[in-house]
């Protein structure tokens, strides 16, 4: 087996030595036992993948690193032989020798693996931060299987009457539109949505009238609107009580997309013509919400959360990315955690996932065509967060005008508290913009000058 060798410069060496050990990177001495090193390979492969450099020493209580590679390529054969037994060279692993100053560092690149990788000691590990954590309990193993998509919670049965699905308004409406010649129960059994006399999770999510009764706190969508651009919303900046969207998956996708658009388009920003309504990329909203609903992990007792801020929309979906999908390859790879949901919802009239597997690509394409910043995707410990950025939805200017609808005046301090603007100078410039538009003016009250000065609405 031939492994590529790359000659690198001192500058490149310095960049490698500056990398910190993390969830994605690890450094090992060439003196480590190859067998013990498989613990790290197992941990990275069972998480999101990463890189291991063999031949780099940690010194000064691990605060610094030094290059201390193999004298020859053959000196690393012991590592290659052990790895090859457990992790054959292929799509999921690759090796490269980095050659500098007459020594070789072996770089192992591990991709997220769709299978569970067992280390040489017979144990299963998973990476968290810079640690390799041993998975000990059966519950932890089952969670790892769900995360990797080895099986899906949608195939579990629920201990509820079959009539909850077979005699629902939702299934009758679907049958009339799609398969009018069939009886619901017979069709559900043919689709393997009923096991024995119990409905599967997928059947309940798609065809019951109220899945939330059987799957509370894990099958609805919560929508929030915050009057701020801050990193997190607070109770003080919450525009109204959170909205809960319930029903079968087909309906909650449609209703959520419509409600989010309604909330966004009711917001305004200030331009040269005054306060104007905002339009968010409609296709992107639809595709990202659909993706969150169809690919979330329904074994996790948490709803999907959609948070609308003054400068972005966040869609947070329970569960990590399934199978071999990562943040880097998500637009190019396909892996359906909930294959039954994806397949059957595509049969509905005006299916939300018309182009199966192309949803996120369509979203990114629309945003690119509109010359907006591309969405960000972040994989958190137990969820995936997609953020769509835009011009402010409800600008500081609009918040001030709305405040003055019910208040006589507003000060700089009150304006900053209301809008989340941290700088008094920036707040002052906001007031000046509104003044120049002929919307507000300084208060004539002589007792309110300097820091106490206030602004009133022009009637």
UniProtKB/TrEMBL annotation:
<dbReference type="InterPro" id="IPR007421">
    <property type="entry name" value="Schlafen_AlbA_2_dom"/>
</dbReference>
<dbReference type="InterPro" id="IPR038475">
    <property type="entry name" value="RecG_C_sf"/>
</dbReference>
<protein>
    <submittedName>
        <fullName>ATP-dependent DNA helicase RecG</fullName>
    </submittedName>
</protein>
<dbReference type="GO" id="GO:0004386">
    <property type="term" value="F:helicase activity"/>
</dbReference>
<feature type="domain" description="Schlafen AlbA-2">
    <location>
        <begin position="21"/>
        <end position="134"/>
    </location>
</feature>
<keyword id="KW-0547">Nucleotide-binding</keyword>
<keyword id="KW-0378">Hydrolase</keyword>
<dbReference type="Pfam" id="PF04326">
    <property type="entry name" value="SLFN_AlbA_2"/>
</dbReference>
<keyword id="KW-0347">Helicase</keyword>
<dbReference type="InterPro" id="IPR038461">
    <property type="entry name" value="Schlafen_AlbA_2_dom_sf"/>
</dbReference>
<keyword id="KW-0067">ATP-binding</keyword>
<dbReference type="Pfam" id="PF13749">
    <property type="entry name" value="HATPase_c_4"/>
</dbReference>
């Amino acid at each position: 087996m031939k492994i590529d060798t790359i000659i690198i410069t001192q500058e490149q060496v310095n960049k490698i030595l500056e990398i910190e050990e993390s969830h994605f990177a690890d450094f090992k001495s060439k003196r480590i036992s190859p067998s013990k090193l498989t613990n790290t390979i197992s941990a990275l492969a069972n998480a999101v993948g990463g890189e291991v450099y063999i031949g780099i020493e940690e010194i000064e209580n691990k605060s610094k690193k030094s290059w201390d590679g193999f004298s020859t390529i053959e000196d690393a054969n012991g590592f290659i032989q052990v790895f090859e037994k457990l992790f054959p060279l292929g799509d999921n692993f690759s090796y490269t020798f980095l050659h500098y100053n007459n020594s070789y560092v072996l770089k192992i690149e591990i991709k997220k693996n769709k299978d569970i990788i067992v280390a040489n000691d017979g144990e299963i590990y998973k990476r968290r931060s810079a640690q390799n954590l041993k998975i000990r309990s059966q519950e932890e193993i089952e969670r790892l299987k769900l995360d990797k998509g080895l099986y899906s919670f949608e195939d579990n049965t629920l201990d509820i009457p079959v009539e909850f699905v077979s005699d629902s308004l939702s299934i009758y409406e679907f049958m009339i539109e799609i398969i009018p010649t069939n009886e619901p129960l017979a069709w559900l059994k043919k689709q393997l949505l009923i096991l024995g006399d119990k409905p599967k999770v997928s059947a309940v999510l798609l065809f019951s009238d109220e899945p939330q009764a059987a799957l509370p706190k894990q099958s609805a969508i919560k929508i929030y609107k915050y009057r701020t651009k801050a990193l997190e919303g607070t109770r003080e900046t919450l525009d109204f009580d959170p909205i809960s969207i319930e029903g079968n998956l087909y309906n909650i996708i449609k209703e959520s997309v419509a409600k989010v658009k309604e909330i966004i388009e009711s917001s305004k920003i200030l331009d040269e013509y005054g306060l104007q309504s905002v339009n968010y990329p409609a296709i992107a909203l639809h595709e990202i919400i659909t993706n969150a609903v169809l690919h979330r992990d329904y074994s996790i007792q948490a709803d999907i959360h959609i948070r609308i801020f003054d400068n972005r929309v966040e869609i947070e979906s329970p569960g990590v990315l399934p199978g071999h999908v990562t943040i880097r390859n998500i637009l190019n790879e396909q892996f359906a955690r909930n294959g039954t949901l994806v397949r059957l919802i595509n049969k509905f009239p005006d299916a939300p996932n018309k182009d199966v597997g192309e949803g996120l690509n369509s979203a990114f394409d629309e945003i690119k065509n509109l010359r907006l910043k591309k969405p960000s995707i972040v994989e958190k410990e137990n969820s995936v967060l997609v953020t769509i950025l835009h011009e402010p939805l409800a600008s500081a200017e609009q918040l001030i005008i709305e405040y003055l609808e019910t208040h006589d005046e507003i000060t700089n301090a009150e304006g900053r508290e209301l809008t989340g603007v941290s700088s008094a100078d920036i707040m002052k410039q906001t007031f000046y913009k509104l003044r120049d538009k002929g919307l507000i003016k300084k208060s004539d009250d002589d007792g309110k000058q300097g820091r106490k000065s206030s602004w009133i609405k022009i009637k």
